[in-house]
Amino acid sequence: MTFKMTKILLSCTLILFAVAVTGCEKEGDIEKAGKKIDHAFQSIKDSLKKATD
């Protein structure tokens, strides 16, 4: 790889990392609702497993 190509790749990697870190900073309403739904389905799954054992 040439120096120019390495420099471009490093720059892109750093930009993507910065976007990923800042994008996941605060949990929004949709993420909270998704977690509640996941928890509800896990509870149902656990209840059904206990009932069939």
Describe the structure.
The chain is an all-alpha fold and 53 residues long. The chain has one domain (3-52). Helices cover 85% and strands 0% of the residues. The longest helix is centred in the C-terminal third of the chain and has 24 residues, at 29-52.
Order of helices and strands: HH
What is the strand tally? 0
- Gross morphology: elongated
Q: Tally the helices.
A: 2
Tally of domains? 1
Nearest-integer average pLDDT:
82
Biggest sheet: strands, sense, closure? none
Helix percent band: over 70%
How far is the first residue's CA from the last residue's CA? Answer: 59 Å
Strand-residue proportion: under 5%
Task: Return residue spans where pLDDT drops below 50 for at least 5 consecutive residues.
Answer: none
**Structural Rg:** 21 Å
> Based on helices, strands and strand pairing, what is the structural class?
mainly alpha
Entry summary:
The protein is built from 2 helices and no strands. It is mainly alpha-helical.
Secondary structure: elements and pairs:
Elements: H1 3-23, H2 29-52
Note the main attributes of this structure.
53 residues, single chain, mainly alpha
